[in-house]
Amino acid sequence: VLGHPVAHSLSPAIFRAFAERAGVPLTYTAIDVRPENLEATLDAISEPPWVGVIFLGSELMRLSNFPGSGK
Fold first, then answer.
1. What 8-state DSSP symbol labels residue 48?
2. What pTM does this model have?
3. What is the spatial order of strands in the sheet that 2-3 belongs to?
4. Which residues, 6 or more positions from 31, have their beta carbon under 8 angstroms from its beta carbon?
C-alpha cells in the first residue's frame, strides 16, 4: 500500500493474515510515498516481484496513471 502518511494503515496486517490463513505466499508492505515521489516509486516497483499496488488516499491515485485514476 502506497500513501502519505501510511503508518496507520491496517492493510498490511489484514492481507498478511488472510494470505497466511489461505496458505498463499504474500508480501504486503506499507510504503510512505509523498506525492512528489510517486512517479519514481512506481518506476522502482514496476518489475516483478511486485504484482499490484493499493493507494491509500485519493491524492496518489489521482496522480498515478493506473486504470480508474482519472488520467
1. T
2. 0.69
3. 31-32, 2-3, 55-56
4. 1, 2, 3, 6, 41
